């Protein structure tokens, strides 16, 4: 097996998923076109060397349907020889895109690949694909499929995470993201030109939010619980008595528009192209946790990745782990015993936004940039998907 290197990781800023959001006027393919061209320019890339583009995308409907990995590469003018594959594992989709690309390079099937993800949630809203497991409650329960917020409330109830503790996680995410913006830490952002101007800053961060403002927000998922989710969860965990609905719009991930690309290849590709790798992709894995918790997969998969690679959490310098609602972050810290100064040091998706199919690739770039900034060696990226699924990458700085 060959070593797999990451030569570049770029992304758009994350824009609010609203008509007034900075990226709303762009179709998903148009947004990706900016990134394809930036990847070419930054690396003097001969695109004929790229075997395939693999993109994560969750809501594959309308403008994001019909294998956007292939069609967006054609739209950007890349050679017709570049294959395309779109993958969907819910919110960890772009981690799986990177993992699949890495496996193809490692096996010698490809010398260079591009992986990443896209989600334009202002144009293709979450759940607009009308999947029956999310629109038909009886059918959903037969498949143990609950919406993410209900799962997060079950996590909070099982671990005793209070509303105050969850709001504190959200406030810290906002403060860290605001600091990272002030200090210019998000160096993987590529400015995107639109008719309204240049979009180069993540729009969802609320630097001035207070704990009092967070405390005033109403529980967001109590109605889902009353509609049947609580009953299903309590049937599995009768000792809980009731589900505590502690998640609000303030301590949940923010919906947004964004895309990200990662350039991977073997050593020979770098030598031939005159490129120096930023990092080595050491290992990848997937795991599944309790489906009724929905979003605890990032914890289970991080545990598995550490175990498979004979590492303790203390041997990893930095973790970028999906803030799949505040209670998941609390569970991550408690289960893995990760100190605050090694976990999501530049904030997470509660503050920065969660463009579902692109989030994992964005986190990968953020991790690499931070490893470089702090001159550290090793990091893990992990994200939860629905139904308890999780995907993770182990990365070492070159």
Describe this structure in words.
- With 398 residues, this protein is α+β, with helices and mostly antiparallel strands.
- It has a domain at 4-125 and 253-279: 3-Layer(aba) Sandwich (Peroxisomal Thiolase, Chain A, domain 1).
- It contains 14 helices and twelve strands.
- The chain has helices at residues 28-43, 68-75, 93-106, 132-135, 137-142, 148-159, 163-182, 211-215, 222-236, 267-273, 297-308, 326-336, 349-352, 359-374, and strands at 4-11, 15-16, 52-56, 83-87, 112-120, 192-194, 197-199, 256-265, 279-288, 318-321, 378-384, 389-397.
- Strands 1, 2, 3, 4, 5, 8, 9, 10, 11 and 12 form a ten-stranded mixed sheet that branches. A two-stranded antiparallel ribbon has the order 6-7.
- The mean pLDDT is 97.
Please sum up the structure shown.
By secondary structure, the chain is of the alpha+beta class. It is 38% helix and 19% strand.
Mean pLDDT: 97
CATH-level-4 superfamily name of the domain at 4-125 and 253-279? Thiolase/Chalcone synthase
Helix and strand succession? EEHEHEHEHHHHEEHHEHEHEHHHEE
CATH topology of the domain at 4-125 and 253-279: Peroxisomal Thiolase, Chain A, domain 1
Which features characterize this protein?
single chain, 398 residues, alpha+beta, Peroxisomal Thiolase, Chain A, domain 1, 10-stranded mixed sheet, 12 strands
Task: Break the fold down into its secondary structure elements and pairings.
Blueprint: E1 4-11, E2 15-16, H1 28-43, E3 52-56, H2 68-75, E4 83-87, H3 93-106, E5 112-120, H4 132-135, H5 137-142, H6 148-159, H7 163-182, E6 192-194, E7 197-199, H8 211-215, H9 222-236, E8 256-265, H10 267-273, E9 279-288, H11 297-308, E10 318-321, H12 326-336, H13 349-352, H14 359-374, E11 378-384, E12 389-397
Parallel strand pairs: 3-4, 3-5, 10-11
Antiparallel strand pairs: 1-8, 1-9, 2-8, 5-8, 6-7, 9-12, 11-12
Helix pairs in contact: 1-2, 3-14, 6-12, 7-12, 11-12
């Amino acid at each position: 097996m060959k070593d797999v290197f990451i030569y570049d990781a770029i992304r758009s800023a994350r824009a609010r998923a609203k008509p007034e959001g900075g990226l709303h006027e762009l179709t998903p393919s148009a947004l990706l076109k900016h990134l394809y061209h930036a990847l070419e320019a930054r690396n003097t890339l001969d695109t004929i060397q790229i075997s395939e583009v693999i993109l994560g995308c969750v809501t594959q409907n309308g403008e994001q349907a019909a294998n956007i990995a292939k069609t967006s590469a054609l739209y950007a003018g890349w050679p017709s020889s570049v294959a395309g594959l779109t993958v969907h594992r819910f919110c960890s989709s772009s981690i799986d895109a990177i993992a699949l690309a890495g496996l193809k390079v490692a096996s010698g099937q490809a010398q260079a690949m591009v992986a990443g993800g896209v989600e334009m949630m202002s144009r293709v809203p979450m759940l607009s694909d009308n999947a029956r497991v999310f629109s038909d409650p009886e059918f959903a329960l037969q498949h143990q499929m609950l919406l993410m917020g209900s799962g997060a409330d079950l996590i909070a109830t099982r671990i005793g995470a209070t509303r105050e503790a969850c709001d504190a996680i959200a406030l810290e995410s906002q403060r860290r993201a605001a600091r990272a913006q002030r200090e210019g830490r998000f160096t993987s952002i590529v400015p995107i030109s639109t008719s309204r101007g240049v979009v180069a800053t993540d729009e969802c961060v609320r630097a001035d939010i207070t704990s009092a403002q967070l405390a005033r927000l109403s529980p967001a998922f109590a109605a889902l619980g009353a509609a049947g989710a609580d009953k299903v969860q309590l049937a599995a965990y009768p000792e809980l008595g009731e589900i505590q609905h502690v998640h609000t719009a303030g301590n949940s991930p923010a919906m947004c528009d964004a895309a990200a690309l990662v350039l991977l290849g073997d050593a020979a590709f770098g030598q031939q192209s005159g490129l120096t790798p930023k990092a080595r992709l050491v290992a990848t894995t997937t795991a599944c946790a309790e489906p009724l918790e929905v979003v605890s997969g990032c914890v289970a998969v991080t545990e598995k990745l550490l175990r498979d690679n004979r590492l303790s959490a203390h041997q990893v310098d930095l973790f970028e782990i999906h803030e799949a609602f505040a209670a998941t972050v609390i569970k991550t810290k408690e289960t893995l015993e990760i100190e605050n100064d090694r976990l999501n040091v530049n904030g997470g998706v509660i503050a920065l936004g969660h463009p579902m199919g692109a989030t994992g690739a964005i986190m990968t770039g953020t991790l690499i940039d931070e490893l470089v900034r702090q001159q550290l060696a090793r990091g893990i990226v992990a994200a939860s998907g629905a139904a308890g699924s999780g995907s993770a990458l182990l990365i070492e700085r070159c």
